[in-house]
Write a structure and sequence with these properties.
The protein has 662 residues and is an alpha/beta fold. Among the domains are: 28-61 and 224-231 and 441-662, Golgi alpha-mannosidase II (Immunoglobulin-like), CATH 2.60.40; 81-215, Galactose-binding domain-like (Jelly Rolls, Sandwich), CATH 2.60.120.260. The chain is 19% helix and 33% strand. The protein contains ten helices and 34 strands. The strands form six sheets. It has a nine-stranded mixed beta barrel with strand order 1-26-28-29-34-31-32-33-30. Helix 8 (442-447) links the parallel strand 20 (433-440) and strand 21. Helix 4 crosses helix 5. The radius of gyration is 28 Å and the shape is globular. Bound molecules: alpha-L-arabinofuranose. Residues 52, 54, 246-248, 379-380, 412, 466, 509-510, 520 line the site of alpha-L-arabinofuranose (AHR).
């Protein structure tokens, strides 16, 4: 057959293209995995989570309290509350301050009713109150009746003021002693933006404090506990550690507003509230109603870590306030109370029940030690002033607990003069761990996947304590963890895993954000008042932490580490306990990649395995409340031929291949 010349040339081009495509498909890249040879151990706690009360992560988030400003201690004592009545009477409601008598919780509310007029106290909750149909709600209050006679009707109302739950509460007795009493009722409808109100009936005089409402489905059904859906998302990740309570809130804007763990344990009405540092931090995202009530305090953090099988990793203030704020430092000769807090915390976590702080732990219901192994001294502190203070902490703590590991700060950035000063000095001082933080564009993550390949192999290990891809703000979804960010994180994480002898712990940050109240984004998990979902980053983190393995084995392309060749990034581990070879490989290119994995060694691999695939051709793809699994792992079976495995990696995909062995 003869073709006219234009047709000929079109056909020629088509054949050439087809040949190029098929020949590309027919010539797979050969990636070699050396299955038998362990090149590094993976720490059992390698992949953890970073928790900070930012973005309404604790109050208004995982701490399931539904009432905002329950103890009237916000700067504006009635913030979150409003009053509804048909006739106002002077002195009917008073905020009373008794700070001489009760410095931790000075204010309470006095309600005096001389007539049986309509009088209702309404709480708006944190961005509304999430109410679920059929759920039990547990109300509690501290009160004293100076003149009995008031009965309280407890109401949940939807935004149209329709009652969607109702209970009642009759105070008992009279006198000057405070009592705590509770009452429960069931909601009749679901609504994410309900309000709670107390309708006061009758006449009398009553003082009220700690007005509280919790859902009946808290984590492990603990009274006044945590939101179960949020904890479950964490538990599902099986994190190796949980770092808490931050973040910058450890430092505080000034020393008076630093996080002090001793103020966060014991009866909740004695935990002195603090303004949340994120309340005022960003003028463009003000959060005037953001406070720390410490209902989630240090005991609860330890308990949470224990519940989900994670090591606890507390970070303590080192005598320095946030250097982006006041930069206030404690005088060196006045550092003792700060150091003592660290020593006491170790005793609180691990001490015998006959010690002062071990006894307190036992009194709180946990006689067994929490087995704390490490703590951070300072968050993102830097400069010679940090080194001076850290030296004092280190000397004292190591003298008493020589094997206890200390995490040291390297400041806010993973490079530059501040980083270099600390990195050099801390290594000279044989620091246990240096905490590196990076919030950088996707590009930086890809370029830095080999960052640790040439790091010093000595006693100082790296803790990547905070990291996240911060995409260009102009990119749609950059604030909500799009797939591009998560894929770049996954790519860098293969470099952390390959260097597990150096990088021994890592945690994405921050963890939680409330969709109506965030200050910082992106974040790993987004919540509203009723629901929560994991972002693509959540699934990347989960794939790493649930497939961490025990031993790193080498994986190479043309005898080189796989750090970006044709957009590929890879690492491989053996799990000697589960008896699995695990290959993690990210494809950052927009093409399918056909790979022959050459699995060398004597280890007897089985012929069938699985591949968990996270993929989207749309790099701007997000997960959402409506579509929480838009980017989530899909698992399929794979077959080996002898010691060879062929797989086609989708464009823009992250893949976890698992092959069992005998
Ligand atoms: O993760 C958010 C903030 O980022 C942390 O509080 C701080 O340590 C870092 O600057």
């Amino acid at each position: 057959m003869r073709f006219h010349s234009p047709i000929k040339s079109v056909l020629f081009t088509c054949f050439t293209l087809l040949f190029a495509i098929t020949s590309n498909a027919q010539t797979p890249k050969v990636i070699k995995v050396n299955v038998d040879q362990s090149i590094a151990k993976v720490q059992p706690n390698m992949w953890g989570v970073f928790f900070e009360d930012i973005n309404f992560g604790a109050d208004g988030g995982i701490y399931a309290e539904l009432i905002k400003n329950r103890s009237f201690e916000f700067a504006k004592p009635l913030m979150g509350w409003s009053i509804s009545r048909n006739r106002s009477q002077e002195g009917e409601i008073l905020v009373v301050n008794r700070k001489e008598e009760n410095a931790a919780n000075p204010r309470y509310l006095q309600v005096k009713k001389a007539t049986d007029n309509f009088f209702e106290l309404v709480n708006e909750g944190f961005k509304g109150i999430g109410v679920k149909k059929g759920m039990r709600y547990d109300f509690s209050v501290m009160y004293r009746q100076l003149q009995p006679g008031i009965k309280m009707v407890l109401l949940l109302k939807d935004p149209d003021k329709k009652v969607i739950g109702q209970g009642s509460f009759t105070p008992e007795g009279s006198g000057s002693e405070w009592k705590k009493q509770s009452a429960s009722f069931v909601a009749t409808e679901t609504n994410a933006k309900a309000k709670f109100s107390i309708l006061f009936q009758g006449k009398g005089n009553i003082d009220l404090d700690m007005i509280s409402l919790f859902p009946g489905d808290t984590w492990k059904n603990r009274k006044q506990g945590l939101r179960a859906d949020m904890v479950q998302l964490l538990a599902d990740m099986k994190p190796g550690f949980i770092r808490f309570p931050g973040g910058c809130i450890v430092e505080g804007t000034d020393l008076a507003n630093r996080y002090q763990w001793k103020n966060t344990i014991g009866p909740i009405e004695e935990r002195k509230l603090l303004i949340n540092r994120w309340n005022t931090e960003f003028a463009h995202r003000p959060a005037p109603d953001y406070y720390q009530t410490f209902g989630l305090g240090f005991f609860e953090y330890f308990q949470l870590a224990e519940d989900i099988g994670s090591d606890a990793l507390p970070i303590l203030n080192c005598g320095m306030a946030c250097q982006f704020n006041t930069g206030e430092v404690a005088a060196l000769d006045e550092l003792d109370p700060y150091v003592q807090d660290a020593l006491d915390l170790i005793e609180f976590a691990n001490g015998d029940i006959n010690t002062k702080w071990g006894k307190k732990r036992a009194e709180l219901g946990h006689p067994k030690p929490f087995n704390l192994k490490m703590m951070g001294v300072g968050n993102e502190n830097w400069g010679p002033q940090y080194l001076e203070r850290l030296a004092i902490f280190t000397k004292v703590i190591k003298a008493k607990y020589p094997d206890f590991k200390l995490i040291n700060s390297s400041g806010t950035d993973p490079e530059g003069d501040r980083f270099n000063l600390l990195n050099t000095s801390l290594r000279e001082n044989k620091a246990d761990f240096i905490d590196e933080h990076y919030y950088r564009p996707a590009d930086w993550f890809l370029k830095n996947a080999g960052r640790y390949d040439n790091y010093p192999r000595n006693e100082t290990k790296v803790f990547v304590g905070e990291y996240a891809v911060h995409a260009d703000k102009k990119v749609i979804g950059s604030d909500r963890n799009n797939w591009q960010s998560a894929l770049a994180s996954a790519s860098l994480m293969t470099g952390l895993e390959r260097n597990a002898d150096v990088v021994q712990m890592a945690s994405y940050a921050p963890l939680f954000a409330h969709i109506d109240g965030w200050q910082w984004a992106p974040d790993m998990i987004w919540v509203d008042n009723l629901q929560s979902y994991g972002t693509p980053d959540y699934y990347v983190q989960k794939l790493f932490s649930t497939n961490k393995g025990t031993d790193v084995v080498s994986i190479t392309l043309d005898e080189k580490n796989i750090i970006g060749q044709d957009g590929l990034f890879a690492s491989s581990v053996l799990d000697k306990g589960k008896k699995e070879l695990i290959i993690k490989i990210a494809n950052n290119s927009d093409q399918n990649q056909n790979i022959d994995f050459d699995l060398n060694g004597k280890t007897k691999l089985k012929s069938k395995g699985t591949i968990d695939e996270l993929a989207s051709i749309n790099l701007n793809q997000l997960n959402s409340f409506e579509n929480p699994g838009a980017v989530s792992p899909k698992t399929s079976a794979i077959n080996l031929k002898g010691k060879k495995l062929n797989a086609t990696l989708k464009p823009f995909s992250f893949n976890v291949i698992k092959i069992p062995f005998n």
